[in-house]
Design goal:
The complex is a heterodimer. By secondary structure, chain A is an all-alpha fold. Chain A has helices at 3-17, 19-24, 28-58, 68-92, 95-102, 108-141, 146-156, 161-178, 184-211, 215-232, 234-244, 248-281, 301-314, 317-340, 353-365, 371-374, 382-387, 392-421, 426-453, 462-466, 470-492, 498-520. Chain A is globular and about 65 Å long. The two termini of chain A are 43 Å apart. The model of chain A has no long low-confidence stretch (mean pLDDT 84). By secondary structure, chain B is of the alpha/beta class. Helix content of chain B is 37%, strand content 25%. Chain B has a six-stranded mixed β-sheet with strand order 6-7-8-3-9-10, sandwiched between helices. In chain B, helix 3 (100-110) runs parallel beside helix 5 and helix 4 (115-128) runs antiparallel to helix 5 (144-156). Chain B is globular. Classes of the chains: A mainly alpha, B alpha/beta. At the A-B interface, helix 13 and helix 17 of A face helix 2, helix 3 and helix 4 of B.
C-alpha cells in the first residue's frame, strides 16, 4: 500500500465522516453533524450486534452449530453487497472530486484504491459487528483449537473484502453501462429496486418454507440449506472449513481469492476510470431545442414545487432506493402472503387480525419517509427556496404531498390485495384503508419536523445526506415506535373493543397530525439550520 | 443618510448582523437605492458584502435595523418583497436534476406568469444569451457560465423592480457580459434599480452611478461615484479608503 493511497484514504475518511470539520471548524453545526454521524454509526453497529448474537444463539443446536461461521459470512456478505452496491459506483467514480484529483500528479489506481479503502474501513466496522458476536457465540459453545482461534482472528480482517469487492465491481459495471444514458440515475434506480425486490421475494419464500415446520424439522431444514450453501458457494465452504476444521489451507484459499478479486477489480477500474468519469461529467447536448408551448402551461406554486421535488427524487438513485424500500416490502409481503395463505381459516387465530393488519401495513409503508431528508436534499439549492416569493407553507405542503404520492402505489396495492384475500367486516375494510393513509400523512409531517430539527444543506455527495442522515434514522425509529405501540395494544385489547380502539387511535393520530401541521407552519424557512 | 425618501427601491437602515460565536459581520450599515440606480458594493474578501446581500434577500436573519424593498419590510412581509426583486448569488447552484427549460418554467410558475408571457420572455432572453440549444439539457451538464446565464434569464423573466446580485459577471463570456451590461442599463432606465457586489473595480466604475465601500462590516463611503472619486480612478480611491 503506497503512501499516496494512505494519504488519499485518510483525506477521504476525514471528509466522509466530517472529522476535519468537527475538529477545526468554529461552527458548532459541524460538530453536531459529526456527533450525529457517530451516533448513527454506533446505533447501527449495536443493532447489527444484537441481531447477529440473537440469530447465532438461535442456531445453537447440534444440527446447526457448525454453520454459525458460514451464517455470519453470509450475513456480512448480504449486508455489504446490498448496501455497498447502492453507493459503490458513486463512490469509486465520484465526479465531484474527479477534476480536483485528476489534475494532480496522482495515479488513477491510487485514487481508486483510496476510495475503496475508505469504503472498506467503514464496512469493516459493520462486518465485525455481525462477525464477532456470531464467532463468540460459536466459540463459547464449540471446542475451538488455538489454531482455529488464530484463523478466526485473521479472517476477521478479510471478511468484508470479498463482498465489498463484488459489490464495487457490480456497481462499477452498472455505472459504466449507464454512464452513456441521459436518465442514468432513473434507470439505475429501477435496476436497484428490481434487485432489492428479488432479494425481498427470495427471503420471503425462504422464510415461509421454514415457518410451518416443527422444531426438529426446522433445524434439519436449516442444516440442509447451509449444507447447500457450502456446496455451491466456494467462499463459504472455505471459510466454514477454516474455522470449524482449523484448515489453514482453506483459510489461505479464502484469503487468496479475496485479495485476487480485489486486484482484478483495481485493474478493471484503473482501465475504466478516466472514460467513465468523463462520461459522467460529460454533457448530453440536444441540438436545437424547440419551444413547445404545451410544456409551458402555468401551474400553481405548490404544484410547481411538487413537480420539481418529484423530478429531483426520481433522478436521485440513493434518495429513491433508500426511501421506497418500505413500499416495496409492503407490496411484496402482501402478494407473497396472499399466495401462501390462500384458503387459510382465519377463525383459528387467537387474536383479531382486523385491528392488527392496518397498523402493520402502516408500519411498512412509513418505514422510511421521504420528508425526513427532503429539506436537506435541497442542499446548495436551498437559497432558492429562501429567496423565491413563496410561503413556508407552500414548501412544506409540496414535501408532504410528495411523500404521500410516493407512498400511494404501495398503499393502494397492499390494501386492495389484503381486502381481496382477508375476510374483513365492513368496519374492518374501512379501517384497513383509513389507518395506513392517516399514518402516511402523520409520518410525512413528523419526518419533515425531524428534518427541520436536524437539517444538513452543505453536503457534497447525495450519499452523505441520504445514508448518513440522522434525521432519516430518527424518523425511522420514531415511525417504528409510533406503530409498535398500537400493534401491541391491538393484540392485547379484547376482541369486542377492537373497532372502538381503532377509531379512538385514528382520532388521536388525526388530532396530533393537525397540531403538528399547525406547529410546522409557524417555522420560518430562514430559521432552519440557523441555530 | 437617515433621511431616505419614500421612493427608495431598497432601503437598508442601521443593519447589524452578528454570526454565531459573536463575530459582528455587519455594523450599523445604511444605504438607499432609488429608481435608476446601479449601485456597486465593493470591499475586500470577508468585509461583509455577501452577508449584507443575504440579509437583504431574506436568507439571513439580523438582530437590528431594517430592510425595505419597494416599501415592504423583508422581515415582516418577505413574500411581497420577494415578488419585487431578483437575486443571483455568487455561485448559482440551480437544481442540477432539472433541465434548463424545466427550471425556467418552475420559476415562471412561482411568479405566476401566463403561458404566453413566459414563452415570449424565455425565448427572448435565452436567444439573447445564446442558451436556446442547451435548454433541453440537464443543468448538471452546464458549465459555470451557462448556469450563470440561466440564473440571469430566470431573474429577468418576471420583470422585477430590483436586481440584487453577488459577483454577477463571474463566468460569463465576453459577449454575454457585454449584453448583460446593456440589459442592466436598459433595466434601470425603466425606473428600476440594481445593487450588486463586485471585485472588478473597472466594471463598477463604468457601470455604476453610485458606490458603497465596506470595510470590516462598516460602510466607510457611499454615494455618487463622481463625488466619491473626485476625478481619480475608483481603484486608487478604493485603495486610499482601505489603507485609512
Amino acid at each position: 500500500m503506497s503512501k499516496e493511497v494512505l494519504k488519499l484514504t485518510k483525506m477521504n475518511l476525514s471528509i466522509n465522516l466530517g472529522i476535519n470539520e468537527a475538529r477545526i471548524s468554529q461552527d458548532n453545526t459541524k460538530k453536531r453533524y459529526f456527533r450525529r454521524n457517530i451516533f448513527t454509526y454506533v446505533f447501527l453497529t449495536l443493532l447489527l450486534v444484537f441481531y447477529s448474537a440473537n440469530y447465532s444463539v438461535s442456531l445453537l443446536n447440534e444440527k446447526t452449530i457448525q454453520y454459525i461461521p458460514v451464517m455470519a459470512l453470509i450475513e456480512v456478505s448480504g449486508y455489504i453487497v446490498l448496501f455497498a452496491f447502492l453507493r459503490a459506483g458513486n463512490e469509486i467514480f465520484n465526479t465531484e472530486s474527479y477534476e480536483k484529483l485528476i489534475v494532480l500528479p496522482l495515479k488513477p489506481r491510487s485514487i481508486i484504491q483510496s476510495r475503496f479503502l475508505a469504503m472498506l474501513l467503514e464496512n469493516e466496522l459493520y462486518a465485525l459487528a455481525i462477525y464477532l458476536p456470531a464467532i463468540i457465540v460459536y466459540g463459547t459453545h464449540a471446542s475451538m483449537t488455538a489454531s482455529a482461534v488464530f484463523i478466526t482472528i485473521l479472517l476477521a480482517l478479510l471478511v468484508a473484502l470479498f463482498p465489498l469487492t463484488v459489490a464495487s465491481l457490480l456497481g462499477t459495471l452498472l455505472t459504466g453501462l449507464f454512464a452513456r444514458l441521459k436518465h442514468q440515475n432513473l434507470i439505475n434506480s429501477i435496476f436497484m429496486m428490481l434487485l432489492m425486490l428479488a432479494i425481498v421475494v427470495g427471503s420471503f419464500f425462504l422464510s415461509s418454507t421454514q415457518a410451518n415446520t416443527n422444531t426438529d424439522a426446522y433445524y434439519q431444514n436449516l442444516a440442509n440449506s447451509f449444507a447447500q450453501i457450502n456446496k455451491y458457494y466456494f467462499m463459504g465452504r472455505w471459510f466454514s472449513s477454516a474455522i470449524v476444521s482449523s484448515s489453514w489451507l482453506d483459510a489461505l484459499y479464502f484469503a487468496l481469492v479475496s485479495l485476487g478479486t480485489y486486484v482484478i477489480f483495481v485493474l478493471i477500474c484503473t482501465a475504466l476510470f478516466v472514460p467513465i468519469s468523463q462520461k459522467l461529467k460529460g454533457s448530453f447536448s440536444k441540438k436545437q431545442y424547440h419551444f413547445d408551448s404545451k410544456k409551458m402551461k402555468r401551474t400553481s406554486a405548490v404544484k410547481a414545487f411538487l413537480a420539481k421535488d418529484l423530478k429531483m427524487y426520481l433522478n436521485s438513485r440513493s434518495y429513491l432506493v433508500n426511501t421506497i424500500f418500505g413500499s416495496l416490502l409492503a407490496i411484496v409481503g402482501v402478494i407473497v402472503y396472499a399466495i401462501m395463505m390462500k384458503g387459510y381459516d382465519y377463525s383459528k387465530l387467537t387474536f383479531n387480525f382486523e385491528s392488527l393488519v392496518p397498523f402493520i401495513i402502516g408500519l411498512l409503508l412509513t418505514m422510511s419517509v421521504t420528508t425526513s431528508i427532503s429539506l436537506s436534499f435541497e442542499g446548495k439549492n436551498w437559497w432558492l427556496s429562501l429567496t423565491l416569493p413563496v410561503s413556508n407553507k407552500t414548501i412544506y405542503e409540496s414535501k408532504i404531498l410528495m411523500d404521500v404520492i410516493v407512498s400511494l402505489p404501495g398503499y393502494l396495492i397492499s390494501t386492495i390485495v389484503l381486502a381481496c384475500v382477508m375476510p374483513f367486516s365492513i368496519a374492518g375494510y374501512i379501517f384497513l384503508f383509513l389507518v395506513p393513509l392517516i399514518y402516511i400523512v402523520f409520518s410525512a409531517v413528523v419526518g419533515l419536523l425531524i428534518n427541520i430539527r436536524y437539517p444538513r444543506f452543505d453536503w457534497n455527495s447525495e450519499n452523505e445526506v441520504v445514508k448518513s442522515s440522522s434525521s432519516l434514522l430518527f424518523s425511522m425509529l420514531l415511525g417504528i415506535i409510533d406503530l409498535v405501540i398500537p400493534c401491541v395494544g391491538a393484540i392485547m385489547i379484547p376482541t369486542h373493543y377492537n373497532q372502538l380502539y381503532l377509531a379512538l387511535f385514528m382520532v388521536l393520530i388525526i388530532g396530533v397530525t393537525i397540531f403538528l401541521i399547525h406547529k410546522l407552519n409557524k417555522i420560518q424557512l430562514n430559521r432552519i439550520g440557523s441555530k | 443618510m437617515d433621511s431616505f425618501n419614500n421612493e427608495s427601491i431598497l432601503n437598508i437602515s442601521h443593519l447589524c448582523k452578528t454570526y454565531k460565536g459573536g463575530e459582528m459581520a455587519v455594523k450599523d450599515l445604511s444605504l438607499s437605492l432609488e429608481p435608476g440606480d446601479i449601485y456597486g458594493f465593493i470591499g475586500a474578501n470577508g468585509a461583509g458584502k455577501t452577508t449584507t446581500i443575504k440579509c437583504s434577500v431574506g436568507i439571513l436573519e439580523f438582530e437590528s435595523g431594517s430592510i425595505t424593498i419597494c416599501g415592504h419590510d423583508i422581515q415582516h412581509d418577505p413574500i411581497s418583497c420577494k415578488r419585487s426583486f431578483s437575486y443571483i448569488p455568487d455561485n448559482p447552484d440551480l437544481f442540477d436534476q432539472l433541465t434548463g427549460i424545466q427550471y425556467l418554467n418552475f420559476i415562471a410558475d412561482v411568479f405566476s406568469l401566463s403561458q404566453d408571457e413566459r414563452t415570449k420572455k424565455i425565448q427572448q432572453y435565452s436567444q439573447a444569451f445564446n442558451l436556446v440549444d442547451a435548454l433541453g439539457d440537464l443543468i448538471s451538464t452546464y458549465s459555470h457560465g451557462m448556469k450563470q446565464k440561466l440564473a440571469i434569464i430566470a431573474s429577468l423573466i418576471h420583470s422585477p423592480k430590483l436586481f440584487i446580485m453577488d459577483e454577477p459577471f463571474v463566468g460569463l463570456d465576453p459577449e454575454s457580459t457585454f449584453k448583460f451590461k446593456e440589459m442592466m442599463r436598459d433595466f434601470v432606465s425603466q425606473g428600476n434599480a440594481i445593487f450588486f457586489s463586485t471585485h472588478v473595480l473597472d466594471t463598477a466604475e463604468k457601470l455604476c452611478n453610485k458606490i458603497a465601500i465596506i470595510k470590516k462590516g462598516q460602510l466607510i463611503a457611499s454615494g455618487d461615484i463622481k463625488e466619491l472619486t473626485h476625478g481619480e480612478s475608483l481603484e486608487s480611491c478604493f485603495m486610499e479608503y482601505m489603507h485609512e
